[in-house]
């Protein structure tokens, strides 16, 4: 299948676009700032206030709407 149209950026924004990703729960966001000590395809480890905090990433998990969720580490 070939798409018949080119998607374009919306002209009018509501101002809520920046809040949509954190509210959806699909983005892994650190609770507090710190220094990244280790990055892997499935885990991000950071050091904040002397404590090591690990964040597990979702790798190809099925969602309820028959789609697939996959998080990639971007720092």
Provide a concise account of the structure shown.
The chain has 1 helix and 5 strands. The chain is mainly beta and 75 residues long. It is extended and about 50 Å long.
Question: What would your notes on this structure say?
Answer:
The protein has 1 helix and 5 strands. It has 75 residues and is mainly beta. The protein has a domain at 27-69. A hairpin with a 5-residue loop joins strand 4 and strand 5 (68-69). The longest helix has 8 residues, at 17-24. It is extended and about 50 Å long. The N and C termini lie far apart (34 Å). The mean pLDDT is 83. It is an enzyme of class 2 (transferase). Keywords: Chloroplast, Nucleotidyltransferase, Plastid, Transferase. GO terms for molecular function: DNA-directed RNA polymerase activity.
Q: Percent of residues in beta strands?
A: 25-35%
Give the tally of β-strands: 5
Spans where pLDDT lies below 50 across 5 or more residues: none
| Alpha-beta classification | mainly beta
Per DSSP, the total helix count is 1
Morphology call:
extended
Spatial strand sequence of the major β-sheet: 1-2-3
What is the helical fraction, as a range of percent?
10-25%
Order of helices and strands: HEEEEE
Kindly provide the radius of gyration, computed on alpha-carbon positions and rounded to a whole number of angstroms. 17 Å
Q: What separation lies between the terminal Cα atoms?
A: 34 Å
- Averaged pLDDT: 83
The major pleated sheet works out as: 3 strands, antiparallel
């Amino acid at each position: 299948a070939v798409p018949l149209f080119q998607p374009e950026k919306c002209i009018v924004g509501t101002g809520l676009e920046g809040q949509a990703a954190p509210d959806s729960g699909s983005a892994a966001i650190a609770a507090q700032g710190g220094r990244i000590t280790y990055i892997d395809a499935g885990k991000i480890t950071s050091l904040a206030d002397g404590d090591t905090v690990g964040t597990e990433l979702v790798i190809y998990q099925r969602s309820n709407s028959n789609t697939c969720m996959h998080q990639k580490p971007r720092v």
